[in-house]
Design brief:
heterotrimer; A alpha/beta (469); B alpha+beta (128); C alpha/beta (429); A: 469 residues; alpha/beta; Aspartate Aminotransferase, domain 2; three-stranded antiparallel sheet; 14 helices; B: OB fold (Dihydrolipoamide Acetyltransferase, E2P); 4 helices; 20% helix
Chain lengths: 469, 128, 429
């Protein structure tokens, strides 16, 4: 499709602005002489983006089993809630009681769901929550006057974990995954020392397994005086079933855009609130929103890590998450976890007849299969591309790194059994094609808006704007 | 592709070829195959001193980033500038046009610690 | 409401297929005594109309008086095209475009966003956006100290105080030293570059004034020049940063088609010179072709990122503000060249308001310098009390003790002459 600048026609813009008869105070030599933005009639703008949207696939288009991303249906009422006129106020407005109430109530709800003592909704995304959490560890350490340098991370972790650790100038130490798909306790014991600030774990982990040794793990870390951080990316499987605060977690981040149904927006905006124990509450980002004498107000803590966002985080996303939680209530939250886990196990059991399942055990909300049984050199990437032809978004591929050719599948609770069956059938057909007609797979997708893209070329000669040659 | 007999090899899959007091360094066919399509080589500066097994440069493919280590110590006297525009040379001609740097040899005895092509072939057989 | 479509019958047959007797059989890896015995203490579910009623009640506790607040978040009109496009589910319910063949919509829109940001700033490369203006700036600070190898940066005190707090947080974590540069008469004062990797200047600065970028660049010849902008509408009127040889441009892009929303989500703009393309944090979209030779777009230069480089990544950020960037792109192309006129109108209204206020006894302009759409005035307390149902601006005393009784006042196209006249009337009657 043509780019905006290729469609641009001088003088065609219809969006008029009338000027006043007032002289500017800005000297000519500070002003620009030319503004080089494309010009299109409004109808052409709308058609451009409408047509672009047709070459995009969202949850609204179909099953989107992208593992660890929780691509559940995003209820439309959330969007209505977020657009309520009175919520669109300036962050420094004095007339903000309603906005404060939403944030405060959401903080309380997240505490109840996770078993943590206090939450800050300031972080704008999951990785932002992670770095906020590690900053809390660092500031806590400074206050205690201790010098520790290492953070333990399982080898199955998401790449943002070690990157967040590096941002805070700590060193990542990797702990192995056992043959059964959980943290290798012997390896953990061996790597623990008084130099360890803490551990960053994902539970259920990125193989979709709830680590049955979780209590022992947090005890080992606590025994050495370390803190336990939980990457809450997979909270969907635990809603109303178990609280991370009950298994020894000191710091957690949640992804409201995963667990609490706010739309992913093609990459954001998300929201990554951070929850902590009572001991760590003073270290949360400033300002906090607290209740004092029945009144909501901002509070600055002297021990805080400081501010991590221009204002108070992604309020628009908080509103959507709040709307979601209130609309489904306590029993609805538990239903979410139960059905997410049921759907995943159902798919796993049926797919393992055709695909290799490296960890054959009960899973939580997601599971991993791989391409090791595929004939004729067909790879995970080929399977992913072919799935598009069947009207599905592919699963997360080549992650976690500990499974070669991994496909991480998370169906979520909002899919019907019929959708799951259709996906399973497509995977069966793909397996058969790999045997009899592998070309179909290596050339896939065949029916997508565009053919398989040359990402090597994109990286060798990066062309990042319409100006570059 | 065969591993030429006129050079020595490391366990990290670099090759080194001696030409007088100059050594040419690159990565093996096995290494380029593992990396997949190379998209960028972060070349070191000429004049830099490197240690044996020290970081020489970074090679990037679409999916991975790999440190390349120096088989011997020495001063970098030349880098293969054609890789800046044609990183694919590492994939297509790993032992010829895809060479990465030339070093001035410090200490020839360091070469004794490296593998011959025959030993490297055996080493590869053990991996696969 | 209930968004789990499985029926009891479905559940039964699925459990049978799995081979467990009941749902709790699927949670057997969780230690028994951790399983919650009672329901969460959260109110029970609501129907849509009950929920809306409840939200409406809370929303009414906010009020929206006439407001001239800016200082990092601006009340601009959002063209009707923006909402029409961004509310399309194909855009809003998609994830990061990891699978380019079915994400061309998101990818092309971001590529066009990157291009328009470069048009506006004159920079060579823009990333796909970051969290917000403050965190973009923090990423720039970290990038600069990594490239230059010096763990110290110069920060003008005329930078938004919230941004300075965020910088402080990141600097502490990343072990960078911040050296403050004083403000003289509203503009950044003199500084020494020795030992620093970069200088950080906001333009227009927090007081709305236009900094002397030429002079700053000359003095900061040997270090990186990083700018921050909270009101990027000014870019449509002012010379682009490339003309001052700026190395890294960061900004809050909320003004471009995103609502105020109590301060979030914002849009972190981040653009650099070509030389730093492999150091840039965040996502990048690049052009390529498919196997048939058709033009297409994909995420690129991913080896900078954490899923590959892990602890050595250029940043820990793995998302952008996709939908906010889309809103900005639709906003920019809807206005097109008329964005220059909109910028001019904002400036005219501010000049008009500043002029009228300064004629009132008891109100004084604080800085006599060119500004874009924000300016500082000192208001005598008795006058202020006449404006109890108007938010006249942001009180500066808390952040700058010297600026007692001073307010940062902002005009946009949403505060037309009638609103300005109303304020003057309320004060003078």
């Amino acid at each position: 499709m043509k780019l905006l600048n290729e469609k641009s026609k001088s003088g065609s813009s219809s969006f008029n602005v009338s000027l006043l008869d007032i002289q500017t105070n800005i000297p000519d030599d500070l002003q620009r002489t030319d503004l080089n933005l494309p010009e299109l009639a409004e109808v052409e703008v709308v058609r451009h983006y409408t047509n672009l949207s047709k070459s995009n696939f969202g949850v609204d288009n179909g099953l989107y089993p992208l593992g660890s991303c929780t691509m559940k249906y995003n209820p439309k009422i959330n969007e209505v809630a977020a657009k309520i006129h009175e919520f669109n106020i300036h962050p420094l407005s004095q007339h903000n009681k309603g906005a404060l109430e939403i944030i405060y109530q959401l903080q309380q709800i997240l505490c109840e769901i996770t078993g943590m003592h206090a939450f800050s909704t300031q972080p704008a995304a999951g990785a932002h929550g992670e770095s906020t959490g590690i900053m809390i560890m660092k500031t806590w350490l400074e206050k205690r006057g201790e010098k520790r340098t290492k953070v333990i991370i399982p080898d199955s972790a998401h790449g943002t974990n070690p990157a967040s650790v590096s941002l805070c100038k700590f060193e990542s130490v990797h702990v192995k995954t056992s043959l059964t798909g959980v943290i290798d306790l012997d390896d953990l014991r061996q790597k623990m020392s008084k130099d360890v600030v803490g551990i960053m774990i994902t539970n259920p982990n990125t193989l979709g397994i709830f680590d049955e040794n979780i209590i022992e793990i947090t005890e080992i870390v606590h025994d050495y005086g370390g803190l336990c951080y939980l990457d809450g990316a997979n909270m969907n499987a635990m809603l109303g079933i178990v609280k991370p605060g009950d298994f020894g977690i000191d710091i957690i981040h949640l992804n409201l855009h995963k667990t609490f149904s706010t739309p992913h927006g093609g990459g954001g905006p998300g929201s990554g609130p951070v929850g902590v124990t009572k001991e760590l509450e003073p270290f949360l980002p400033n300002p906090r929103i607290i209740k004092k004498n029945e009144k909501l107000e901002f509070e600055q803590s002297k021990e805080s890590i400081g501010k991590v966002h221009s204002f108070y985080g992604n309020f628009g996303i908080l509103l959507r998450a709040y709307s979601y939680i209130r609309s489904i209530g306590a029993s609805g939250l538990r239903d979410v976890a139960e059905n997410a886990v049921l759907n995943a196990n159902y798919m796993k059991e049926r797919l393992k007849r055709h695909y290799h399942l490296p960890y054959d055990r009960i899973c939580q909300h997601e599971f991993v299969i791989d391409d090791s049984l595929m004939p004729n050199g067909v790879t995970t990437n080929d399977i992913a591309k072919r799935l598009m032809d069947f009207g599905f978004h592919p699963p997360t591929i080549y992650f976690p790194l500990i499974v070669k050719g991994a496909m991480l599948i998370e169906p979520t609770e909002t899919e019907t059994k019929e959708n799951l069956d259709a996906f399973i059938d497509a995977m069966k057909v793909i397996k058969e094609e790999a045997e009899h007609n592998p070309e179909k797979l290596t050339k896939a997708p065949l029916n997508a808006p565009i053919g398989r893209l040359d990402i090597v070329r994109a990286a060798r000669k990066p062309k990042l704007t319409w100006h570059s040659t | 592709m065969e591993n030429p007999i006129d050079r020595k090899y490391t366990k990290e899959h670099e090759w080194i070829k001696i030409d007088g007091d100059i050594a040419i360094v690159g990565i093996t066919d096995f290494a380029q195959d593992q990396l997949t399509d190379v998209v960028f080589v972060e070349l070191p500066e000429v004049g830099k001193q490197v240690d044996q097994n020290g970081n020489l440069c970074v090679v990037e493919s679409v999916k991975s980033v790999s440190d390349i280590f120096s088989p011997i110590s020495g001063e970098i006297v030349e880098v293969n500038r054609t890789l800046e525009d044609s990183p694919a040379l590492i994939n297509n001609e790993p032992f010829e046009g895809g060479w990465i740097v030339k070093l001035k040899v410090n200490n020839e005895t360091e070469l004794d610690q490296l593998m011959t092509s025959e030993e490297y072939n055996k080493f590869l057989a053990g991996i696969e | 409401m209930d968004y789990t479509p499985n029926t009891d019958k479905d559940r039964e047959s699925m459990l049978r297929e799995i081979g467990v007797r009941d749902i709790m059989g699927l949670f057997k890896d969780i230690p028994e005594d951790l399983i919650l015995k009672s329901p969460l203490q959260i109110p029970d579910q609501l129907s849509e109309f009950e929920l809306l009623r409840e939200l409406g009640k809370i929303a009414k506790k906010n009020k929206k008086p006439l407001s001239f607040q800016g200082g990092g978040n601006y009340n601009h009109h959002i063209p009707s095209t923006v909402d029409a496009i961004t509310s399309r589910g194909e855009f809003s319910t998609a994830y990061t475009p990891y699978q380019p063949e079915i994400s061309q919509g998101t990818l092309q829109a971001i590529f066009e966003y990157q291009s328009m940001i470069c048009d506006l700033t004159g920079m060579d490369v823009s990333n796909a956006s970051m969290y917000d203006g403050a965190t973009s700036l923090a990423e720039a600070m970290i990038l600069a100290s990594r490239i230059k190898g010096k763990k110290q940066v110069l920060v003008s005190q005329a930078l938004n105080p919230f941004y300075r707090e965020v910088l402080k947080t990141y600097a502490r974590a990343n072990e960078i030293k911040i050296v403050d540069i004083d403000v003289t008469d509203g503009l950044t004062s003199d500084f020494e570059t020795e030992g620093s990797s970069a200088i950080i200047i906001q333009n227009p600065n927090f007081f709305g004034l236009i900094e002397n970028l030429d002079e700053i660049r000359k003095k900061a010849e040997d270090i990186l020049f990083i700018t921050s902008t909270t009101e990027p509408l000014s870019w449509a009127m002012l010379k682009p940063f490339s003309e001052y040889n700026v190395d890294i441009v960061t900004a809050e892009g909320q003004s471009f088609g995103n609502p105020m929303n109590f301060g979030g989500p914002g849009l972190g703009i981040f653009a650099v010179k070509q030389a730093y393309v492999r150091q840039i944090p965040g996502r990048l979209v690049g052009e390529t072709v498919d196997i048939y030779g058709n033009r297409g777009f994909a995420l690129t230069l991913c080896t900078r990122e954490q899923h590959i480089r892990r602890e050595k990544a250029t940043s820990n950020i793995c998302t952008n503000q996709g939908l906010c960037a889309l809103a900005a792109a639709v906003y920019l192309v809807t206005y097109g060249k008329n964005l220059g006129k909109l910028a001019r109108l904002n400036n005219q209204l501010s000049v008009c308001f500043a002029g009228k206020l300064s004629q009132i006894e008891g109100i004084d302009p604080v800085f006599d310098k060119p500004f874009f759409n924000e300016f500082v005035v000192r208001i005598r307390k008795d006058i202020l009390s006449k404006l109890s149902d108007i938010e006249i601006g942001i009180s500066l005393e808390e952040y700058y003790p010297d600026l007692k009784d001073c307010y940062l006042v902002c005009c946009t196209e949403m505060t037309p002459k009638e609103d300005i006249d109303r304020v003057i009337y309320e004060i003078t009657q």
